[in-house]
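Following up on my earlier message about alpha-D-glucopyranose. Here are the inputs again, as you asked, copied directly from the submission form:
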Amino acid sequence: MKNILFTASECTPFIKTGGLADVIGSLPQALVKENLANVRVILPKYGEIPDQWHEQMEEIASFPVRIGWRNQGAKLFKLEHDAITFYFIENHHYFERHGIYGYYDDGERFVFYSKAVIESLPYLDFVPDILHAHDWQAGLAVAFANILQPVKNMKTIFTIHNIKYQGMLHYEAFDDLFNIPREHFAGFEWNGMLNAMKSGIFHADKITTVSPTYAEEIKEPFYGEGLESLLRDRQGDLSGIINGINTDDYNPMKDPYIHANYQHSRVKKKENKKKLQEMIGLPVKPDVPMYIAISRFVEQKGFHLVEHILHDFLQQDVQVVILGTGEYEFESSFSWFAQNFPEKMATLLKFDEGLARQLYAAADFFLMPSKFEPCGLSQLISLQYKTVPIVRETGGLKDTVHPFNEFTGEGNGFSFQNYNAHELLEQMEYSLKIYHSDKLWQTLLKNVNKSKFSWTDSAVQYAELYKDLAASHTEGE
Ligand code: GLC
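Thanks, got it. Here's what our run produced:
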């Protein structure tokens, strides 16, 4: 079995801002439990990590990290959790802050983190065959590993979870912070800036992303965010492996947050709907179809389309519930609709895990019309909770939700192709028609019940990649 060191900037249950944390918090377990690889994970030790975890960490080393002409101290901590060894890199100046991103010196913070990952390798009591780095915050670790070769024959994999966020620094930071010979500058530079995402893609032995469709899409300008030509250069080493979810945790049979636990029962699901309607002040009408959206309100998630169709759609006998926070434009327009259609719409401006699960359990339909979606986890959770997803055909949404065809009886959701509000509305209206036609609705629900999104298959695909890559050096040398 191969030794794999994951490096990333967030991981459940310690710290989370998005889906990346869910993946780093569940893929290693899947690999280890299926005996597919020995995985350990290294993370920044943020002040924001809850105290209960800090208290369990054990300090194992302390060393300086060279940042230009300065030395920054790093302390390395270790913690075992759920069969996985986690390492944490501490530096108060960089990581003892409110929140985890959004600072003027984010670039420098992750230069430090990436260097500290490399410097920590001798202290790990674990010799990685592969450094598996995730998203821009760990992109420089891939570059430093390939240039500095800190462990003989260690290979690198870089996984793109979202190419929109690239981690840019002024080009002068190369001389100020990197301590890497000038000849390597071109491997870090993109359009006049230093770019951590580009550095990862350029230097990694293999590149993956989180769905097969997104792996194709990012080679095109609409999705590639300026890096499409580089991805086309490296397409022989690029592949897409779909994410899974932790199906023990997201399990409507056992979920402690929901009112009535269930497996396939629509009767129980309606009890959850009634309870939710009471709780959030909507008319208690369990037979009225309920459409939900749960997300950060950002352009990526397709909320412009939702905004455009709400007025028309709310003319129907339906209920719509939106849960999340984000850009002011969306918060205010969704609040406006809730105020003006109090019998039909509720807007809950917060992030609340328990409430989110109550919504998944209560609803009939889940809206996710993303403009782009590398994988998307919410549509998988929605399928787990037997709530029918309505999605745009992009990235992982296209790979996991298949449009219902009333003639062949295939499909586990509804989908549309173009980023166009009319196409969304058309699918929502079609979903209503299916909901009201008993036989077709039953067929659709059967397909939803059969959808499976545990990590098992994808973990096997990662293990294959690890095996091929780790074997590759012995032949050439
Ligand atoms: C990012 C992507 C999302 C993906 C997640 C985990 O948050 O936007 O689509 O599911 O990473 O890979």
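One observation from looking it over: The pocket of alpha-D-glucopyranose is lined by residues 18-20, 23, 161-162, 210, 243, 373-377, 396 (CB under 6 Å). Hope that helps, and feel free to reply on this thread.
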